[in-house]
Amino acid sequence: MAATLHSSRPGPPWSAVGRSESMVARRSPSATTWLIPRRTPSSRAVKSGTSLPRIRTIAPHTRPSCARKAMRTSCLTPDGLSTSRKRWLRSRSPPVACVRVRATTPLRTSSRMVRTSGSVSCCSISVNRPSNRNGSPSSWKPPLMLCVSGSMVSAHHRSAGTTRVTWAATARSSASGESARRDRSATASRTSRTVALLTAPVWARMPRPNHPSLEGCRPRTALLQSWRVTATDRRTDMIIGVPAPALDGFEGELLTPCHADYDTVRRIWNGSIDRRPAFIARCRSTADVAAAVVFARRHDLPIAVRGGGHSIPGYSVVEGGLMIDLSLMKGIAVRAAARLADVDPGVLWREFDTAAQAEGLATPGGEISDTGVAGLTLGGGIGWLSRLHGLAADNLLGVELVTADGDVVTADDDTDPELMWGLRGGGGNFGIVTRFTFRLHPVAPAWAGMVMYPGELARDALHAFHQAGERAPRELSLVAALVSAPAAPFVPAEAVGRPVVGIAAAYFGPHGTGQELTASLRGLGRPLVDTFGVTGYAGLQRMLDDANVPGRQQYVRSDFLHGLPDEAVAALAHHGTHPSSPLNQVLLRRLGGAIADRDPGATAFGHRSADYMTMIAATWEDPAEDPERHRHWVSETWNSTRPWAHGTYVNHLGDEGGGRIREAYLPGSWSRLTRLKARMDPDNVFALNQNIPPAGA
Q1: Residue 246 — very low, low, confident or very high, per pLDDT cuts 50/70/90?
Q2: Can you tell me the distance from the alpha carbon of 415 to that of 514, in angstroms, rounded to the nearest whole number?
Q3: Domain count within the chain
Q4: Rounded distance, CA 324 to CA 507, Å?
Q5: How far apart are CA 674 and CA 429, in angstroms?
Q6: Residue 98 burial (CB < 10 Å; 0-12/13-18/19+)?
Q7: Could you tell me if residue 611 is inside a domain?
Q8: How far apart are alpha carbons 439 and 356 in whole angstroms?
Q9: Does residue 385 sit within a domain?
Q10: Does residue 94 belong to any structural domain of this protein?
Q11: Where in the sequence does UniProt note compositional bias of the Low complexity kind (predicted)?
């Protein structure tokens, strides 16, 4: 097949290479056409943004040796000047790395099959070491590592309506004699089905991965300019000298699939999400976040933003794009006298709670301690303190935010009240918040704990939970859970694995009053477990952690309920005691109190009159297990309470479509949110979330 090369978009100076005329081989299918720069620009031209020259064709040659020779006489070097073959072979001018695109079978990389629709993220290249002037091998050692993103370099093989390609890599040798002939023969056999060959010079500014298999080598990672390769009716190879763009102004860690930490960093709370971003930008500052956004826009990369990584549908990670990881941004500044705190977006609630509690203060957060502050707050934020002090979003006073253009702005209710309105429940649609300013409240140790009964008492326990909630003061927070008893030290051995109903409560007031208010919950016969006592707030925040271990397979649905009639109690009790997995949960949280005090239109989060919030979660360990029976259990349980449902919590939404996203907001708020989105992000750069489309899109 021949191939025509196009530039995917205007960009850095080197993108002019791709704006040359179409280049199609006119020889037999076995011929190979090598395309290289006719000449190279001066360093002044590169710095000033002058376009590179057109491409000239060196054809036909079936062996890559001629192309190597041509490249040696016309390659790009650090000073942007052409060099002779002899100078190119010196150790200070390392060889050009090559990636071949094959529209054939999947590529086996690192003993693992990699198949995608359109691209594969990473491949390694072995490059023979160049010789010194005297012909002896230099100190530079192979292999060279080149990581390629399907979004950065994409190939489209148009055949029967499919666009499936894979990347492959081959070695390039500077050896001579019989060894070189064998190398060329092997290379020819490996490249016999090649569609295109793209290259990037090694000297461009690149991060250095720390890969365990590369000890003693000098690995590099290249970020390639975006190209589109369209297959036609002939077979050809193309080689393009393309400088690798740098992530300008970025001082954090840039990971690619070749890095040793890549697989660890890309993993998120929901283990059923297995996406491989092309690049992970581990930001250390607001400037890093801005640089990452600009980089992604320049190269048309989809963006995912990770704070704590608890996004249920996995919006914290993106396939083939740029994952902006905020987890290294851990600053917390508690201003105890003013009862304020400034918090960076990578902070987890357990870290924030610990810092604030050192001063006897806290702000409403979630109920799982390793949830990120950023995502939970922007979606509303419901937790143990919400009946007393409102949502996390209600206590958000100001932000620093990186916009879709990479600009940095600050906002509060005086400078930009409309943006603050949208950030209090509108999710990550309007920018990347890099600093949160919260109001803090005095929070002393609470009377808190959990009581657990056998599953046969589920209906009685839920009725007692409902009655306690109806008369509860706002200082009392209540959660009911239908689960299987965990293998915990406080659980009797005979109860482990059996369906149980648990009721957790926390009273933020006099401990004696708390004992009186929770007595009815603890008196339904003989409980299996009773952990009530005086508990510090940071410890309370960790009480439910054991049931929410990161890395498990998850499927979740949620709703707000108005009322809890007997029919709803019976349905929840039945499904909750007949789970598809012993790790499943049916959670029911009592709302009201300070949540309902504010006008529904005062924030983007508007479902303030709801009485309860359900969270129905199927959880299982084995990723190879068929998820359908777990999804079916969740759907049946969720549907059983739909007659009393009104609206949903955006932080508990899965990948359920635009209709469900609209259910998370009041009708009058939706149009206001779309107008704000059009103002802040008209191109929908921040689309990987519970997305609000820009007005007029």
Answers
A1: low
A2: 42
A3: 2
A4: 39
A5: 10
A6: buried
A7: no
A8: 11
A9: no
A10: yes
A11: 168-178
Q: What is the pLDDT of residues 349-393, one digit of tens each?
A: 999 999 999 999 999 998 899 999 999 999 999 999 999 999 999
- For 54, 490, 513, the CA distances from 232, given in Å and listed in that order, are 22, 68, 79
Asked which of 500, 535, 570 is the last residue of a domain, the reply is 535
State which of 181-185, 632-636, 692-696 shows the largest mean pLDDT: 632-636
What are the backbone dihedrals phi and psi of residue 518, each rounded to the nearest 5 degrees, phi first?
-100, 0
pLDDT over 90 (residue 143): no
Q: Is 381 exposed, middle or buried (0-12, 13-18, 19+ CB in 10 A)?
A: buried
Can you give the three-state secondary structure of 400-468, one letter per residue? Answer: EEECCCCCEEEEECCCCHHHHHHHCCCCCCCCEEEEEEEECEECCCEEEEEEEEEHHHHHHHHHHHHHH
How are strands ordered across the β-sheet holding 166-168?
A: 166-168, 96-102, 194-201
Ranges of beta strands (E only) in 634-689 are none
Q: Looking up tokens 């029976």, which residue turns up?
A: 629
Q: Tokens at residue 320, please?
A: 């083939």
Question: Containing domain of residue 98, as a range?
Answer: 3-21+31-231
- The CA-atom distances, in angstroms, between 249 and each of 206, 291, 358, 373, 682 are 13, 6, 36, 26, 25
User: What's the pTM value of the predicted model, to 2 decimals?
Assistant: 0.70
Question: Does residue 674 carry a pLDDT above 70?
Answer: yes
How wide is the angle at C-alpha 303 spanned by C-alphas 402 and 367, nearest 5°? 75
The helix or strand, by DSSP H or E, that contains position 254, with its residue range, turns out to be strand 253-255
Give CA–CA dist 620/627, Å, rounded.
9
Q: Are strands 322-325 and 279-282 parallel, antiparallel or unpaired?
A: parallel
Helix ranges, 325-389 (H): 349-357, 373-378, 386-389
CATH code assigned at 463: 3.40.462.20
Q: What does the alpha-carbon distance between residue 606 and residue 408 come to, in Å, rounded to a whole number?
A: 28
SS3 73: helix
| CA separation, residue 183 to residues 124, 136, 176, 190 (Å) | 18, 18, 9, 10
C-beta separation of 388 from 508 below 8 A: yes
* Residue finishing a domain among 486, 513, 535: 535
